[in-house]
Specification:
Structural class: mainly beta
Number of strands: 10
Number of helices: 1
Mean pLDDT: 88
Oligomer: single chain
Distance between the termini: 55 Å
């Protein structure tokens, strides 16, 4: 159940999804053993879940809350040989070990992503459509106005294993 106000919502209850499946055609992957658990107690949600893709798996857990109209939370994302893409242009497995902290409009991502295996073969972009002559660029400040922008910081180490690239005359 959700009560309270937009600035101070109150949660009470739980929802759970077990053994789900999902297909993401654009990435060519099928998620299995898909799970999600959300439970709420007063002003905080506890979230956890995971999925399998290819030979690997990924899981996350953390908390999320809104206090005084500001979002806060901490999450951990862990995985091993999770197949992130399986299309002709990219066959990629990842093993992330990340933490994410949220405080108001600030997001901080820390950790490491290992790429034990990747085959990258981007298609030729020679026939791409060029930018229209009547394109109009809008200033970011005009879009944001007085809204507090999100500040995202990260310190993520990328470790590559067996990675190959073929394209644009390179291999």
């Amino acid at each position: 159940m959700l009560t309270g106000t937009l600035d101070e919502p109150l949660f009470d209850g739980a929802i759970r999804i077990d053994d789900g499946t999902a297909t993401i055609p654009r990435l060519g992957i099928r998620l299995t053993a898909l799970g999600l658990a959300i439970s709420g107690k007063r002003d905080e949600l506890a979230l956890s879940g995971g999925a399998r893709s290819g030979e690997g798996a990924i899981e996350f857990d953390g908390t999320l809350g809104i206090r005084d109209g500001k979002l806060s939370g901490e999450f951990a994302l862990r995985g091993e040989n999770f197949q992130a893409a399986n299309i002709p242009e990219a066959r990629v497995s990842i093993s992330p070990q990340l933490t994410v902290g949220i405080a108001g409009h600030a997001v901080d991502v820390q950790g490491e992503v290992r790429i034990p295996h990747a085959q990258l073969a981007p298609r030729d972009f020679g026939s791409m459509v060029s930018v229209s002559a009547d394109e109009i660029l809008v200033d970011d400040e005009a879009i944001l106005g007085d809204e507090d922008p999100w500040r995202i910081s990260s310190r993520v180490r990328i470790v590559m294993g067996d990675v190959s690239f073929t394209g644009f005359g390179l291999s």
